[in-house]
Amino acid sequence: MNASGLFAPVIPERIIVTEYTIGYIVGSISSTSINRRLAKALEKVAPEGVTLTEIPIKDLPFYSPDHDGNFPEVATTFKTAIEDADGVIIVTPEYSRSIPGVLKNALDWSARPYGEASFNDKPTAVVGTSQGGIATAAGQQHLRAVLLHYNALVLGQPEGYIQSTPGLFEEDGTVTDEGTAEFLRSIIGALVTLIARTAPAEVPAA
Questions:
Q1: Is residue 8 within 8 Å of residue 1, measured between CB atoms?
Q2: Considering the entire predicted model, what is its pTM?
Q3: Distance (Å, whole) CA 45 – CA 168
Q4: Which residues contact 97 (CB under 8 A, 6 or more apart)?
């Protein structure tokens, strides 16, 4: 923990020289979503060697088991993007003390067909922002429960409950408070550490 009271995990040297791709999912399809601004902020503060890329969910149809035998291309693309990423950050609003329906629908797609859960063993971080004092804490707890059911490797600390104040995130994702920017960097750093720690060991060539 640094002088500002924020978690700042130590990143092993081998992480600095390695390229990582982290996919992010925004759990809102609102055109004015403050959580989309938060996601853009994470993109902006990502350190060298770490690339954040959105995994969109707005075009996914409602999930139904009727699709299991013939997955639509948009759902296959969604699942592949999760599986190809080194890690995933889910940026979620809180609706009625839970996660938005559009996000739950996307998560349902990620877990199907049975036995092909895209989040299995996937290093995953959860963050979110709202104007309330506890931010999206209740919604994030529900989201963590779903991800743990999928056997995702969910980052425990730091917890990304971010209170959004006027002007904190500009439309392009610029963060106007350096303390918040540092905290966002610490979340990315902790996720990268988790990715590196849980990556399959390299087997030397015979």
A1: yes
A2: 0.87
A3: 14
A4: 138, 139, 142
Structure tokens at 71: 């997955």
Place of tokens 């940026």: 91
- CA–CA dist 111, 116 (Å, integer): 6
DSSP assignment of 27-83 equals S---TT-HHHHHHHHHHHHPPTTEEEEE---TTPPPP-GGGTTS--HHHHHHHHHHH
CA-CA distance, 152 to 146, in Å (whole number)? Answer: 9
- The answer, yes or no, to whether residue 76 has pLDDT greater than 90, is yes
- Show the tokens assigned to 155: 């980052």
| Number of other residues whose CB lies within 10 A of the CB of residue 135 | 21
**Are 94 and 138 a contacting pair, CB within 8 Å?**
yes
Contact (Cβ atoms closer than 8 angstroms) between residue 27 and residue 93: yes
> Which residues lie across from 146 on neighbouring strands?
none
Q: Which residue matches tokens 């092993």? A: 12
Whether residue 133 is predicted with pLDDT greater than 90 in this model: the reply is no
Q: Is 2 helix (H, G, I), strand (E, B) or coil?
A: coil
Q: How far apart are CA 160 and CA 42, in angstroms?
A: 12
Residue 23's contacts (CB-CB under 8 Å, 6 or more residues apart) are 52, 53, 54, 55, 81, 82, 84, 85, 87, 88, 89
Q: How far is CA 141 from CA 33, 47, 83, 196, in A?
A: 20, 27, 23, 25
